[in-house]
Design a protein that fits this description.
Helices cover 43% and strands 19% of the residues. The chain is an alpha/beta fold.
Length: 315
């Protein structure tokens, strides 16, 4: 299968490396020093799932140099979805499937006007990784999962082939009959743990260990569930279980990407996560005090910074 990874970071890198190691023709789209390192030394994945080296790695910053593929995994940040959709037009053939794996709940709907409903599937990823050096990505935790499906709930041979290829590559892939619910289950999970870890500046284990933070985690999930129900998503109490299991089972040191970005002074996905809960709460008249506090406290950092500001008294 010909596959393009649009955004070779903490999600696209590990997934693309698994597919390349399984023998698929994978092209990695990246930029800058990361791209240069991949061209020179390959793509290295380290961490809790072991080490994988893809060398040589087929890496480029030009989608037109790749041409039409069978599958595009869109793994850019949420603010780049539309730009990524326009950039990947040279990758689209008559049967190409495009799976956006962003956080949040609307990346696929944002791509449909750009690429067409026939090409865009809904998707999500449960992969935690970050670029620790050019050409090197570290995964935290052993979860290595994607779920995807057509927005209309149907499934064709194309989708079943993608599921089979991903599973054969060691990815826990699920062709979801209701990708809308699946995306919201991840949204409920992620807004709570990512928001709290970023707010408290601690990894997951500290949230689990502190009764006050653990209670806030449960409350934040319940707020997201309430606004999802108000949006008409087919959710119920069971939609909280993935988030509870994630908090219970993942390693103490797991650091959500929003905290990684906050520490590095990079832009945050806050408006599409806790900010989205706040906006939907306001639209439906639902109180969301925990997500509101997270959003308000992190909002000054949402656009990132080039370098840390000096402490008082520093010259």
């Amino acid at each position: 299968m010909r596959i393009a990874i649009l955004g070779t970071g903490g999600i696209g890198g590990p997934l693309g490396a698994s597919l390349a190691a399984a023998g698929h023709d994978v092209a990695f789209l990246a930029r800058g020093a990361h791209l240069a390192a991949m061209r020179a030394d390959g793509l290295r994945i380290t961490g809790d799932r072991g080490e994988t080296l893809i060398r040589p790695a087929r890496a480029t910053d030009d989608p037109a140099a790749i041409g039409p593929v069978d599958l595009v995994l869109v793994c850019v940040k949420l603010w780049d979805v539309e730009a990524a959709g326009a950039a990947c037009r040279p990758l689209i053939g008559s049967e190409t499937a495009v799976i956006p794996l962003q956080n949040g709940v609307d990346a696929a709907e944002r791509l449909v006007p750009i690429l067409g409903a026939a090409h865009v599937l809904g998707g999500l990823a449960m992969v935690t990784g970050s670029i620790v050096a050019p050409g090197v990505i570290r995964q935290t935790g052993t979860h290595h999962r994607v779920a995807f499906g057509r927005l209309d709930g149907a499934a064709t041979l194309r989708e079943r082939r993608i599921e089979a290829a991903a599973r054969a590559a060691g990815i826990d892939a699920v062709l979801a009959p209701d990708i809308g619910r699946a995306r919201w289950e991840k949204f409920i999970l992620l807004t709570a743990i990512a928001g709290l870890c970023a707010l408290a500046r601690v990894p997951l284990g500290a949230v689990r260990a502190d009764p006050d933070l653990a209670a806030l985690h449960e409350a934040a999930m319940r707020e997201a569930l309430a606004v999802g129900l108000a949006e008409g998503v087919a959710l119920d109490e069971a939609a909280l279980e993935p988030g509870r299991a994630f908090l219970r089972d993942q390693p103490d040191g797991l650091t959500p990407s929003m905290l990684v970005d906050l520490r590095a002074g990079r832009r945050l996905e806050l408006p599409w996560l806790n900010g989205r809960v706040v906006a939907l709460g306001a639209a439906h008249g639902i109180a969301v005090p925990v997500n509101g506090t997270i959003h308000a406290a992190l909002k000054p950092h949402a656009m990132g910074r080039e370098s840390p500001p000096p402490l008082a008294g520093e010259g």
